[in-house]
Design a protein that fits this description.
With 108 residues, the protein is mostly helical. The protein contains five helices and no strands. The longest helix has 17 residues. The chain is globular, with a radius of gyration of 13 Å. It starts with 23 loop residues before the first helix and ends in a 10-residue tail after the last helix.
């Protein structure tokens, strides 16, 4: 499947080569490819992920993602089940891809 004209260059796993090339329009293109309709609740997590990346230099794995969301967005959103409803399958990996960040280490 072609990534389409709205996606900047990707690595072999489908992650952006340059995280600086990300925008909410790029996020929308990634989400569409994954069958996800982005809503504000997705966007707030994507922005939290990007802040985390800027501070730590890497994408968080699942446990760190849950902690991050809990700290920044509250106890009700900082749960694995909530993240799975937004980013099915592997939330840390899928959310990182849509946020334009590198694949988290230790994610399948």
């Amino acid at each position: 499947m072609s990534p389409g004209p709205t996606l900047p260059p990707l690595d072999s796993d489908g992650f952006l080569l340059d995280p600086e090339a990300w925008s909410e329009q790029v996020a929308q293109a990634f989400a569409t490819r994954e069958g996800i309709t982005l809503e504000q609740r997705h966007i707030e997590i994507l922005h939290a992920l990007r802040r985390y990346f800027l501070q730590h230099g890497h994408s968080p794995a699942m446990r760190a993602l849950v902690s991050l969301v809990r700290r920044e967005l509250g106890e009700d959103k900082g749960r694995s089940v909530y993240l799975l409803t937004l980013f099915p399958g592997s939330p840390a990996k899928l959310a990182a891809r849509i946020a334009g960040l590198p694949r988290p280490e230790h994610c399948l």
